[in-house]
Amino acid sequence: MSLSAEIGVTVGGFELDLDLEVADGELLAVLGPNGSGKTTLLRALAGLVPLDEGHIVVDGVLLDDPGAGVFVPPEQRPIGVVFQQYLLFEHLSARDNVAFGLRARGVKKGPARAEAARRLASVGLADRGDARPAELSGGQAQRVALARALANDPRLLLLDEPLAALDVATRRQVRRDLRHQLGGFGGVRIVVTHDPVDAYALADRVAIVDGGSIVQSGTVAEITAHPRSRYVAELVGTNLIEGRLDRSVLVTLDGVEVAVVADFDGPAFAIVRPQSITLARVAADTSARNTFDGVVDDVDRIGDRVRVGIAGPLHLTAEITVGALDSLGLRPGDAVSASLKATDIEIYPA
Ligand SMILES: Nc1ncnc2c1ncn2[C@@H]1O[C@H](COP(=O)(O)OP(=O)(O)OP(=O)(O)O)[C@@H](O)[C@H]1O
């Protein structure tokens, strides 16, 4: 393992408490909603916030351990950071921005500038060394920030929302470039993002952070198939129901009963694809085992499909065609009946 960390930090009443093990060459995406602690995690790894408890070990070297009285300052850590807004010095050229970190570590001006030029060339910016940050496109500024982070040959590379500063049109191209550039780095890479598309495009493994702790981690495929929280279910666009199974009836925490097909009892999650939910104006006489009456609380059109949010005993999202929406004439506030077949509900242990 190249990064092994137990992070215990409190900032302004917010508590971050999580463990991370990341192998050399692995790219971990840390995904979570606003305020979940992602930036605080990066700041703790980089040494910008000292740990209150725990330890950080990179390549076998202890960087922070309050119990042992060890704290290696940020500039001495084998860590490169690309911050959210890149934080390039506006008054310095691209080359001097990249050379800055090397100079801070005692490299002489000439060799630092030569190394910076080489680093810029490696991210495809050989001809932009004299440009100031204001003269660079968003994608170019990001590559300068990456070249700067890599200039000291770090063992751990941290990227905080690397695509957030870019407009939608440039994002896709820069995401592709970034994947390519990150592919050439052999150490541990951690990318923080709240965009699942970035996580899926860049990462081998994803850790979902919520409320200062890791609520789920695994490969993208594992997380997508078996979400274990409402946040993740929403990210992957499915409905999650949590409860307790008792002979093929899932009883939710609120006491709602859902008929399912299951061969075990006990705490369980159920997922229902929005496309498997049938909507009707009044409770229909169907073969579906489950029918819930509710009220439409959201109607969101995506191409020729419509996602309809239903508030009721269960909060569900159904996906229907525009034609079906028109014939039902559903609007927010309307009463609606949602049916789901027991065989369309996938069950797994909680
Ligand atoms: N220096 C600080 N002083 C007080 N509170 C802080 C400080 N730094 C972070 N917090 C609080 O800690 C929580 C986590 O913040 P953090 O920036 O780590 O979240 P995040 O997941 O990166 O969010 P975002 O996606 O919005 O950047 C927030 O509630 C924030 O207000």
From TrEMBL:
This is Molybdate transport system ATP-binding protein. Keywords: ATP-binding, Molybdenum, Nucleotide-binding, Transport. Residues 285-349 form the Mop domain. Gene3D superfamilies: 2.40.50.100, P-loop containing nucleotide triphosphate hydrolases. One of its GO terms (molecular function) is ATP binding. InterPro entries: AAA+_ATPase, ABC_SmlMolc_Importer, ABC_transporter-like_ATP-bd, ABC_transporter-like_CS, Mo/tungstate-bd_C_term_dom, Mop_domain, P-loop_NTPase, Transp-assoc_OB_typ1. PROSITE patterns: ABC_TRANSPORTER_1, ABC_TRANSPORTER_2, MOP. GO terms for biological process: molybdate ion transport. The keyword ATP-binding applies. Residues 2-236 form the ABC transporter domain. It comes from Ilumatobacter fluminis.
